[in-house]
Design goal:
The complex is a heterodimer.
Chain A (H helix, E strand, L loop, with lengths): L1 E6 L5 E2 L3 E6 L5 H10 L3 E3 L10 H15 L4 E8 L7 H10 L4 E5 H4 L2 H19 L5 E4 L4 E7 L9 H14 L3 E4 L9 H5 L5 H19 L12 H5 L5 H8 L8 E5 L9 E5 L5 H10 L4 E6 L12 E5 L2 H6 L6 E2 L10 H16 L5 H4 L15
Parallel strand pairs in A: 3-4, 3-5, 5-6, 8-9, 8-12, 9-11, 10-11, 12-13, 13-14
Antiparallel strand pairs in A: 1-2, 1-7
Chain B lengths: L4 E2 L7 E4 L8 E6 L2 E6 L9 E3 L8 E4 L2 E6 L8 E2 L4 E2 L9
Antiparallel strand pairs in B: 1-2, 2-5, 3-4, 5-8, 6-7, 7-9
The chains are: A alpha/beta, B mainly beta.
């Protein structure tokens, strides 16, 4: 099975051909936005990181920036710094050169202030746009696709309709030799016994128990009941009673195949098939981590409804019920609510999601892309010093 | 015809409302060779759960064939099952 993608010089396959204007430090975020807003056709990503990180946190932020800006959906990247930060454009550019990414760098202090930096940045962005515009799509195998699995604004139908239907689509992709990654470790609490049974080997099973225990320990370390945040008030209104119930519904996105590997947040996997990325349950940070890990496309199920997209990877939104679908049609691509309405089955919606993945991978735009949703955030572990 | 409620696993002691359900309504739910018929004792909002059988205080509430928490008091068949009578056992930093 094939789709039309962009084969990069390093062999990786992208499904979009973006020029990304990326600040490596929050201090340069506004300058990056100004450059991008004056050069239509570019995208940008705003975040609050780049300084004050140490140890594991520093590693994670750098890994995320490198994974995100070196991603094959990005044909060229302009890194914007301030000049005195911990993570300068040069830190990221050095790593990107090793993976063969097309990169330019600029900094506010060196350029001589905002106006000069924006002017110089615009010239570099124009140059990158001209270069990447001559790249064409070519036929590539579906096994080159990595799908990020995400859910947000869950309700009691998430685990009955959209998530199991997405699980069927994941199974179909894995059967074709592709990769599917699910994450949101907090939303695995109470399912470790179910997931570990599906681990490829004892080591993967051990890692599953470890990351879930660590997420629970972190929640407990706050000295309060996790129910203040999980399930969220919207989840509870939707009928979800406990984190266990939410989790059991969440993990159905992963389908039924063997879990081949557990990777860190934003870490590139070495295996194909179904994988787990350790990470937060905050949707925007999850999406960033999934993309940095290599996902070119995300399918996002939602019960209560959510508008979010990402700067570089298309997000296919799947509603769990028809009430939300009818209310938020502008934002939602597929309605899995037809399953409870008796107008579709898990199998038919699962196939519909899989077909949509291939079409979007080949260039069809999603609702989030049309509306310009480009939400972005990095999961910093802190403490920010 | 559209089903009024869904039962996900044979081990489950709760069902989920597929539409707004009223107190006194008769509900039929089934999975494979297992079926239950009950009468609701309370209104059940869309997406919320109700007990398919009596659940004792301290007993696990089962959905997807797994525990989703423990009953904090006795729950009668047909009653609404939610945060007011089920307590999560995970991430309880308040219990040391």
């Amino acid at each position: 099975m094939k789709f039309l993608g962009y084969r990069r010089r390093n062999g990786r396959v992208g499904i979009r051909n973006h020029v990304l204007i990326f600040p490596t430090i929050v201090c340069a975020a506004e300058v990056a936005r100004m450059i991008s807003s004056e050069i239509p056709g570019t995208v940008h990503a705003i975040h609050g990181c780049g300084c004050g990180h140490i140890g594991e946190d520093k590693e994670q932020v750098i890994r995320t920036m490198v994974g995100f800006t070196g991603h094959p959906n990005v044909a060229g990247v302009l890194l914007v710094g301030n000049g005195c930060e911990l993570i300068t454009p040069e830190v990221i550019a050095g790593e990107l050169a090793e993976v063969g990414q097309r990169v330019e760098t600029i900094s506010v202090q060196e350029a001589g202030g905002t106006t000069k930096c924006v002017e110089e940045g615009k010239r570099l962005a124009e140059k990158l746009l001209t270069e990447v515009s001559s790249v064409n799509r070519e036929s590539v195998d579906v096994s080159e696709l990595t799908l990020g699995l995400e859910c947000g604004g869950s309700d009691a139908f998430s685990g009955l309709t959209a998530n199991p239907a997405l699980g069927i689509a994941s199974d179909l992709l894995v059967a074709e030799g592709g990769t599917a990654i699910f994450t949101e470790t907090t939303e695995m609490l109470g399912t470790e016994q179910v997931l570990a049974k599906r681990a490829a080997d004892a080591e993967v099973g051990k890692r599953i128990y470890e990351i879930i225990a660590a997420a629970e320990a972190k929640a407990k370390s706050m000295g309060v009941d996790i129910r203040g945040s999980q399930p969220s008030p919207g989840n509870i209104a939707g009928g979800l009673t406990s984190i266990e119930e939410k989790s059991l519904g969440c993990i159905r996105k992963g389908g039924s195949t063997t879990i081949m590997q557990v990777v860190k947040y934003a870490e590139r996997p070495t295996k194909k098939g179904l994988l787990i990325m350790d990470g937060t349950a905050l949707d925007i940070m999850s999406n960033t981590g999934l993309i940095a890990s290599g996902a070119q496309i995300i399918v996002f199920t939602t019960g209560r409804g959510t508008p979010v997209g990402t700067p570089t990877a298309p997000v296919i939104k799947v509603s769990t019920n028809s009430v939300t679908y009818n209310k938020m049609k502008d934002n939602i691509d597929i309605n899995a609510g037809v399953i409870v309405d008796g107008k579709g089955t898990l199998q038919s919606v699962g196939q519909q999601i899989f077909d949509e993945i291939l079409e979007v991978a080949s260039g069809k735009v999603t609702k989030a892309e049309i509306l310009g949703h480009r939400e972005f955030d990095i999961h910093s572990l802190g403490p920010v010093l | 015809m559209q089903e009024k409620a869904i039962l996900i696993d044979k081990k489950d002691n709760v069902g989920t409302a597929l539409c707004q359900l009223e107190s006194g309504e008769s509900i039929h739910a089934e999975i494979e060779d297992y079926a239950v018929d009950i009468v609701l004792l309370q209104n059940i909002p869309f997406g919320h759960k109700f007990a398919l059988k009596d659940i004792q205080q301290g007993e696990a509430v089962i959905k997807y064939g797994e525990s989703i928490g423990l009953a904090t008091n006795q729950i009668r068949q047909g009653e609404h099952v939610h945060v007011h009578n089920v307590e999560s056992q995970k991430g309880r930093g308040d219990k040391r």
